[in-house]
Amino acid sequence: MRRQSGLAVICGMVFALQGGAAGAAGREAADACSFLSQTTVSTVLGVALDAGRHIGPGSALCGWGEPNDPNHSGKHVLFTIYRAVGKISSEERFENGKTPIQGIEKTPVRGIGDDAYYIDTPGFGLGLNVKRGAFAFQVKVFGFSPELIKSFEKALAQNVLAKLP
Questions:
Q1: What pTM, to 2 d.p., does this model score?
Q2: How far is residue 133 from each of residues 15, 103, 115, 122, measured CA to CA in Å?
Q3: Buried b (16+ CB within 10 A) or exposed e, 132-161
Q4: Predicted pLDDT at 34
Q5: pLDDT tens-digit map of 4-41
Q6: Are residues 135 and 122 in contact, defined by beta-carbon separation less than 8 angstroms?
Q7: CA 39 – CA 146 distance, rounded (Å)
Q8: 93 and 74: one domain?
Q9: For residues 112 and 154, what is the distance between their CA atoms, to the nearest angstrom?
Q10: What is the CATH number of the domain that holds 65?
C-alpha cells in the first residue's frame, strides 16, 4: 500500500510539473495582442489608439497606434513576447538583454515581475523588459517624454502581469 501511495505522489508531481511547463509554453505561444486591450492602452497613454494588430509574421509582436497612422509614426505602443529562438529560451533572451553594450543604457527596475530593466537604445527608443517565471516580454511606448514613457511602460507591464497566473 505504501508503495502505491508513493507511486501516486510521484505521478502527481510529474503531472503538476508538466502542467506548469505546458502553462509556460502556452503563455509563450499566446497572442501578444490578447494581453492588452485597446481601452487599456488608450487609457494608460491618455490618447485614442486603434485596436492592437500583429506586426510581422506570427503573433509575438503587437502594436497599437493612433488612428489614421498605420505606420505607427506617432504615439504608439509595441508589446513583444520573448519566445525561444533556436536553443535560446525566452528566459535566456531576457538575461542576454542585460549584457552591457557600449552606448545602450540598461537600468534595473524593482517591483515589476521577478526581474525587470529599462533598455534605452539610441535610434530605437526606450523599452521595459520584464520576466515572471519562464515568461518574458518587452513593452515600448513612443511619442512621449522619457519620463512619461517609463511611467506608461511600467503601468502597461503591470496590466500584462495581472493576466498571468
A1: 0.81
A2: 18, 29, 9, 29
A3: bebbbbbbbbbbbeeeebbebbbbbbebbb
A4: 96
A5: 333 232 233 222 323 333 344 444 568 999 999 999 99
A6: no
A7: 23
A8: yes
A9: 8
A10: 3.40.1000
